[in-house]
């Protein structure tokens, strides 16, 4: 059996309806992530929290020191759980995430968080490229409507496209209930 670790990506106040970048379905995703975190802790598996913060206070979101960069209370780390602060979309870029995973002898990562089409996408692809087995809990992730060239892509479709790509080539994509059963 492979050693698993949970990566909780960017479940921060900025994504709440009161934040500067509200996501569709964030409350449900966070509720599922909280269930997964509780299960992971109960099983004695390591939990790695990722927190996005821009390196300067001129960014429109994730401003250092702001309430928006705080991890939501229901999924907040407990003593001993690492919080990896990132300044880029990919949680592996210029952080010690890989070293933290390796120090815990993690071979398989379970991924939850935000945003499905950006930071989740980047961490899933990077983890798979580095040789980790990857499981994404689709209903513990959220995103927002996208726009390109005058076309609006509803959040549900952007999320589904990201999950379909992961399932096609990067890992397993399952529900929270299936993972917990």
TrEMBL record:
Name this polypeptide is given: Nicotinamidase-related amidase
Domain Isochorismatase-like: 5-176
MF annotations from Gene Ontology: hydrolase activity
Phosphoprotein as UniProt keyword: no
Source species, domain of life: Bacteria
Keywords: Hydrolase
Organism: Methylophilus rhizosphaerae
Classification via CDD domains: nicotinamidase_related
InterPro entries, per database record: Isochorismatase-like_dom, Isochorismatase-like_hydrls, Isochorismatase-like_sf
Keyword Transmembrane among UniProt keywords: no
């Amino acid at each position: 059996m492979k050693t698993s670790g949970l990566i909780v990506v960017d479940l921060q106040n900025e994504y709440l309806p009161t934040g500067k970048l509200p996501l569709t379905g964030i409350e449900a995703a966070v509720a599922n992530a909280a269930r997964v975190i509780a299960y992971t802790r109960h099983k004695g598996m390591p939990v790695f929290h990722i927190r996005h913060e821009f390196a300067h206070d001129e960014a429109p979101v994730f401003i250092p020191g702001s309430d928006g960069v705080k991890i939501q209370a229901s999924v907040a780390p407990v003593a001993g759980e690492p919080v990896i602060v990132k300044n880029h979309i990919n949680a592996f870029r210029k952080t010690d995430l890989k070293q933290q995973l390796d120090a815990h002898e993690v071979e398989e990562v379970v991924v939850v968080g935000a945003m499905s089409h950006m930071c989740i996408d980047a961490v899933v692809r990077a983890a798979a490229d580095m040789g980790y087995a990857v499981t994404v809990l689709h209903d513990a992730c959220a995103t927002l409507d996208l726009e390109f060239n005058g076309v609006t892509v509803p959040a549900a479709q952007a999320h589904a496209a990201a999950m379909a790509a992961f399932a096609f080539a990067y890992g397993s994509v399952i529900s929270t209930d299936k993972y917990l059963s």
